[in-house]
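Morning F.,

Quick status update on the modeling queue. The single chain you submitted on Monday has been processed. Sequence for confirmation:
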Amino acid sequence: MRRPACVPLILNAVACLLSLALGAIPALAQRQPIVHVIEVTGIINSLTVRYLDRALGEAERNGAAALIMRLDTPGGLDTAMRQMTQAMLAARVPMVVYVAPPGARAASAGMFITLAAHVAAMAPGTNMGAAHPVSLGAQMDEVTAQKVAQDAAATARTLAVERGRNAAWAEKAVLESASLTSAEALEQDVVEIVAVDLNNLLDQLDGRVVTTAAGPVTLRTRGATVVDVPMNFAEQLLHVITDPNIAYLLLTLGLYALLIEFQAPGFGLPGAVGVIALVLAFVALGNLPLNWAGLALMALGVALLVAEAFTPGFGALGASGLIMFAIGSLMLYRPFGPSSPAFPAVTVNPWLVAAVTAGTGGMIFFAIGKALQAQRAPAISDLSHRLAGAAGQVRTDLAPVGTAQIGSELWTAVADAGSELPIRAGESVVVVAVEGVALRVRRTEASSHHSSGG
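Structure tokens below.
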């Protein structure tokens, strides 16, 4: 039987398709992996929690081989630290914490976050630890201090055991404020890798097996494509304002702007700026260890300075106001209760406090004093402009004081020096000046000639 002529063509087409499919399999198998990288710097707070959650979601959706957190922090809020460690323990994507660059640190909350990573790494010249609770305000009693320390130590031990790290050192970091350099941390099984840079880290990660919430995963990171996942604009803005000094400046700027607005009512630009600054300040203060007594002292100090501006001279109110404002500024981040071991000691720069206190006193005394001076001054500038040179008639003899009608209004009038007295009722006069609620007037030339001729 003779085969149809189209059969060889079909067989050739099938062979080509199979060849292409078989050639594509190795290419798919060798597809370059992707690694996402985030930067966490400064104080750990609710913002960094949202940033980490977003980054973990993106890494999982994009099939990233790992999410690397480049970390440099002095510590942060206990609640934020716990939320971040919980997210890392539940992560389905391998989570790597890399304390970098050289000179960076993972102190207080940063230590707990590093312990929670699937793989912990440090750059040379970095350190971690120092997580002992310290009271920022009044002294803690011994029982309270012991409870806070033991709770934090238990958390550190739990994280270390979960990730197979040195639990004894983790406890020591809390109870004795122990710290380690990168080399010491590697030697004592606190971290797994010391890497000089990101590429070196990716090379050392390759082939390691970690256990995520989705099960065991073998890391394939050598030659991976690095995708930076930066903070978005809103996150960057909030990250900037949570700096203790920036939050303090926003608070004082808001007070300044509202004081200016109160002196010129109408909710203009100063009022809008003041409201925005205070809203941002309180958002920032919500992520810092705020001392409400310090905030109250600052507000009371401003109130006393305002009161002083309404009294002559610089007295006890002004001096007390400046002192209270300065003390409140220094106390702003020093709560009286026990401090979490996750949080570093936070203060406003004393030089900044001195500059803002001096500026506050100067601004309030100058601005409010000028406004008060303007309020106390006789409101005659418009009258002087309107009445100077206006003509009218005398209603009662000016000898030298009487009354004169200027337009439709009757005024107390005083004869100008040098005028021949009395100026009789009915004579024409012209206004020379406004003096309080009286007008200084003189005869018009026509009236002078008429008086002389008479």
